[in-house]
Amino acid sequence: MKISIIGTGYVGLVSAACFADSGHSVLSLDKDKYKIKLLSSGKTSIFEPKLKTLLKKNIKDGRLSFTTSFSRACNADLLILCIDTPSKKSGDPDLKNLNIALRQISKFLRKDLFLIIKSTVPIGTNEYIDDFFKKNSKFKVEIISNPEFLKEGSAVQDFVFPSRIIVGCNSKASKKIMKKLYAPLKLAQKKIIFMSANSAELTKYASNSFLATKISFINKISQLADLTNANIHDIKLGLGSDPRIGEEFLNAGLGYGGSCFPKDIKALISLEKKSNLPFSIFSVVEKINNQQYEIFYNKILRAFENSNLKNKSFFIWGLSFKPNTDDIRDSISIRLIKKLSPQVKHIYVYDPQAMPSASKSLSDIKNITFSDNSYHNIEKSHALVLCTEWNEFKNPVFKKLKNLKDKKIFDGRNFLEKSEVIDHGIEYIGLGIN
Ligand code: UGA
């Protein structure tokens, strides 16, 4: 099939590379000329495992190309919208970029078309888009909701082996074309779940908010574990072993970040407010998430109770919002550095991928050094603070960590073994680890 994909963010770019790799002919569009030039030469400005290889291979094989021209993009069997919908101040998703794209499509459309909405959009947006084309185009545009569930850091893997494909549409023709689009992935039939567009849109929010709720739930339990001298690792095992609960997304830590959970929870809070629903579970989820890094910050302050923090330096491992990505959007690590830096002498940081983006975001901070590796400057630091659980941090060289002046490790992701750290004569402070 001939597919055009609008938007080259994580979802757009991974979809373009994976659909091309499955045999479709894909034209990927972005308004950013510089980005399109970069992508055309097989390079990408984002770090995502396996993505670069797929891009290069499919460009070379002639199945994937890039453009800034809506006129070219509209000449396809299927158009897929992967436009960002960031939060507005009110918490509602901002549809400004999506509306610009819709106007461009209606301007350049020359034939009937299937338009697939992959962006996370407020409930009712597919109906709104349907209405827009009825008013603004003489061609028949069938709108299909197809929210995406891939995770950054394992996006290609998630795309190729999806847990499910959600399709919100009404017509037989839409169902047929969606089956054809995903046919190369050879999915079991029951993996494609058809429903109404409104249900598909709400399924996306329900999925993300449920996962965010699971994280805030386990973080609240970790707070209780600290109060009662219990251990969150044991509790996670005991809790997650119930198949009705499951052990995934039960890792207590600094809380969730990234470009999705915070934004989607905000959207639901705003929707509830507007609808005058009496009680919000999502406001509580958000509150716990904001509490969690404050609790961690206070643990750092408490550990140095009797000393002047202005004489202390800290080494932070991890800047990205999660491992295997260079994305720092809503990264708790960045938030923590901004809060901690005015209180302390110096901050040393290291991240395997996110240093370039973080250095821009932290450019106002004067007492910060971006280290060449995870151990360079360790001997100048009093304590180590772990913010992102990159694999390369999981088996640290304790011989080097022993050079920390105050021999303290604060583990914001609970990923080091407490007993091992203590065996090396270093104090260990986690969240709910007793
Ligand atoms: C999330 C969803 O997992 C995807 O299914 C969805 O498609 C995506 O949002 C989206 O809407 O585009 P993503 O934000 O890339 O994916 O990353 P996650 O792996 O879900 O992690 C989100 C945050 O939760 C990270 O900060 C992570 O550190 C945190 N987290 C995750 C925890 O604190 N504990 C856990 O047990 C799991």
How many whole angstroms does the radius of gyration measure? 24 Å
Strand content: 5-15%
| Range of helix content | 40-55%
How is the largest sheet built, in terms of strand order? 3-2-1-4-5-6
Determine and state the CATH class of the largest domain: Alpha Beta
Q: Mind telling me which CATH architecture of the largest domain this is?
A: 3-Layer(aba) Sandwich
Shape: globular
Would you report the number of β strands?
A: 14
Mean pLDDT: 97
Record keyword descriptors for this entry.
434 residues; Rossmann fold; six-stranded parallel β-sheet; 16 helices; 41% helix; globular; binds uridine-5'-diphosphate-glucuronic acid
Brief summary of the model shown:
The protein is α/β, with parallel strands linked by helices and 434 residues long. 41% of the residues lie in helices and 14% in strands.
3D structure, described in words:
- The protein has 434 residues and is an alpha/beta fold.
- The protein folds into 2 domains: 2-195, Rossmann fold (3-Layer(aba) Sandwich); 197-434, NAD(P)-binding Rossmann-like Domain (Rossmann fold, 3-Layer(aba) Sandwich).
- It has 16 helices and 14 strands.
- The strands form 3 sheets. Strands 3-2-1-4-5-6 form a 6-stranded parallel beta sheet, sandwiched between helices. Strands 11-10-9-12-13-14 form a 6-stranded parallel beta sheet. Strands 7-8 form a two-stranded parallel sheet.
- Helix 1 links the parallel strand 1 and strand 2 (25-29).
- Helix 1 crosses helix 3 (51-60) and helix 9 (197-228) packs parallel to helix 12 (281-303).
- It is globular, with a radius of gyration of 24 Å.
- The mean pLDDT is 97.
- The structure holds uridine-5'-diphosphate-glucuronic acid.
- Uridine-5'-diphosphate-glucuronic acid is lined by residues 120, 148-152, 208, 211, 215, 249-251, 253, 255-258, 260-261, 321-322.
- Uridine-5'-diphosphate-glucuronic acid (UGA) binds at residues 120, 148-152, 208, 211, 215, 249-251, 253, 255-258, 260-261, 321-322.
